[in-house]
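User: Show me sequence and structure for the first protein, then do the same for the second.

Assistant: Starting with the first protein.
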Amino acid sequence: MTSSRKQLQVARQVWPLAKDYYAKARKARKEGIAVAWTVLMPPIELLHAFEIMPMMTEHFSSLLATKQVVAPYLDRADQLGYPTSACSYHRIMIGYGVSGEELMIPEPDFLIAANICDGGSKAFMPIVDHFQIPYFYLDTPLDFHSGNSEGVDPEPLEYYRHQLEELIQFVEEITHSSLEEERFQESMVLAKEATDLWLEISELRKNIPCPMGVVDEAGTMYPLMQLLGTKMAVGFYQVLLKEVESRVKDRIGVIEEERYRLLWLGPIINYDTGVLNYFEEFGAVLVKSDIDAFYLAHLDPQNPFESLARKYIGANFFGVLGKRLALTRQLIQDYQINGVVMYSHLGCRQYCGGQKAVQDMIKKEFGVPTLNLTGDLADFREYDGHEMRNRIDEFLELLD
């Protein structure tokens, strides 16, 4: 067994970075700056251009789940009648928001939801009612003919542009301030720089041994989700890139002896991240996941509206399954994958619905072993870590 794991130093700065952002948000609200709670994938680059404080609720739920303090909030959401089969991230935020406790993240002045997460678009109505705040629903159109963000048809691009214009008007009316074109372009420049740095880091992870695995990827994705359009995101990824470059130069891998290279498909289990490290005890490294693809696109600051439309309409987990299949093929080839671990979050219909097709494609085209794990992202009350590890043991035997 191999147990000597080399964690990235920068990865340890994610929680301090998040705490600092939340502290700034609380201070900003006291000074009259608007706070927006968001549900999966409204255009964060645009919101930062307004210089308001957007709060990505799913990420905050994941932090609470990591600390295993979510049970009271889940119970409260259950009591409100919210179904236990729904996404636990949203159930946590409902229970947390209406708890009456002093909140670590500031109370919202308004809420923005996008239909990329169809369950989330209505999930937060209890929050809207509790705080008596305005609510904006961003209707991202499906594009059934595209395989990636570059191939989006003109009609959905134009429709999304109108949605962005309505969102801008909505925020301007609440904040009593206008969106400055120069600030919007600056936000897009910063978002592009941060995204390009992440893509450069991902390219380095193709090296053998892998300098940065999924354990560190899961944490260091935070700026992609919450901070795109800020200098904080750029600065964080500049430091991360230097550390990964240094590891590649010195041939330092995640573990001392890398025997197998695994791909993780799906979101990360927040309350038992040790299950990711468990693979490493047997010389297997989770070298890459697909979850960052949610937030990646080639941004063009000179054409911000079209650029954002292409990004969010073309998101790999929204619309046609062919986008997910193409991404999975590319990752298996580029990262020289020996096996694939798929995690099905039972509260997410979009992702679970395509798992069988992805698994069949992997078996047919690559013949590498796959392991399909099921469970919840944040609700640990019925989780059996021993059973999970037993299934991993059986899977790893197939790699020999």
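Switching to the second protein now.
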Amino acid sequence: MDENEYVTHFTGLVELEREEQMRVHEEEMRRLSGREREEKGRAFLKMKGKSQGLGLGGKHLVRFRKQHDGVALPETEIEVGDLVLVSHAGTAPWDEANPLGTVAERTLYALTVAFDDAPPDFVYRKDLRIDLFVNDVTFQRMMGAIKKFKRLSQSRKDILLGATRPSFGTKKKLEFFNPALNTSQREAVLRSLAAEDFFLIHGPPGTGKTITCVEVIMQLIKRGMRVLAAADSNVAVDNLVERLDTLGVDVVRIGHPARVIPSLRKRSLDYLIQHDPDYIKAQELRERAHRLKERMKGVIVPEQRWRRGLSDEAIIAFAREGRTVRGIPVEKLKGMRRWLTVKQRIDKLFSIARELERSAINGIIEDAEVICATNSTAGSELLKGERFDYAIIDEATQATEPSSLIVLLKAERFIMAGDHKQLPPTILNEEAASGSLSKSLFERLLEVHGDKVRVMLDVQYRMNEEIAAFPSSEFYGGKLRAHERVKSQTLKDVIPKSHQGAFEPDDVQPLVFIDTGGSAEFRERTRRGSTSKENVAEAKLVRDIAERVLSLGIRPEEMAIISPYDDQVSLIKTLLPVDGLEIKTVDGFQGREKEVVIVSFVRSNKSGEIGFLRDLRRLNVSITRAKRKLVLIGDSTTLATDECYKRLIESAKERGAYKRVA
């Protein structure tokens, strides 16, 4: 593929995905009731809004809460950085008059939304609905990055397209900031610093790839390098900021933190800029401009029917002379003159405010040792024209290639960390997914250039060795080993003393596969109108096992229940309404860990169909989340139609971890 084909290829794929996301959201808003959207986590109903004044860039901030005080927001997919539609009860959410805003902050009880322009008055009333919508800004930034690809030097394009090999200097001895790094982590740092173009840090589950990235960043700061650190999600960016802040790095977070904690807030650009004199002055000027705009509402606007071909300057001149021209009454001319004069003042105030704010932002960004942002935010106006020596992209295998491109175009060299053996970015459009949009740049570069451009971290600090054995052999060539600290850890270690006499040996067994095969009671089913699957008997078995674990004194926060299917997740939630217990899809739990994880595979049918369970990266994520106890529940007859699942079940049998359902 040459550079022209590359640009055409990815432009087409991004446009397909953009159209698909818009279609899916609009179709769902029309098809489902507001209550159904809220239950799916894609809307909030019965909200009220309150102005929070102006934010960075003159954005209008509005905080939304439930109408009844003290009511927490329901569980939701809506996150910081998402685009939302605000509508009033009785109107269609997609009505053109309804404003679009970006989520700036989400707490347990409130959602703060930033609007580019002053929103309509109804957003400050009750009976509001807030809907998750498509963030078109991200798509536009990806499109922009694809177009800029052509401007790269020929040598860099050749390396990215696989026409030439990347270069490496000699590895130099280092004094590590983190003396606890293991051998593979140290090797990854050394090789990253020796790379003259790019390098890949392959981090299987629990191997500390973010810690390794932080060490690379510390070494680069020591060398006086300017660093941009990014990830596709706000949570991953927050993790980088938190670790760098702990080490005393002057890090600036562009965009809003996903978690509202002081250590993150004080590092955000929005917080840092509040105390800058230029920014304070800019906000004062903006407020003056908005007050003037309010005063203009009753003044005659120079519409085309009153202008009659006159320029702004001519209207002002004739009004000053106090004479009629082209049949326009003097009073109309004077009214238009007042409007134009005030508008000129407003435009000047906004212009000066923008210059002052830009000066304040530039000062903070230039003084920072590290800038942290999501991939999309790295392409924002705030970083326009900024150049970096290095870009570090964490969780790179969860980002599309155009998303990663936004970041790496801003730096001379880049280092990516991720795990292509886990789930790739989620793509809704099938044509875009099969056309390679679901393949990360990390994975493509590894395919093109081979093992010379990567180091695999080979010590994991999460799982008991019984849990880790199968994923190590199946997905990581048997090279992933458990650290001494975790290899023998079991649930027994965290059961409170008050419950130590209450458990059976089976309760603390690290791994168990419960086979539901052969029982008609455990057949899957599909709800009317749904494309998902559920298994009622399996959900009840999950409930019983979870209740047994909780009875041992294990806190709900220490356990998770995951399933590949949305409908199974919602079913289990109704059976187990326990505060603090996370019940999520496998895809939604990637990157997370718990002491105990129960996995419900759902599929059980006579034809041996397992659907998207055939994506073995989903299986890998499922079985690598648990630290001390992993319970797998499924129909072996159905699952074993796939060779990998067959090996999983055989492995459980060999380890004495296989049981048939009672």
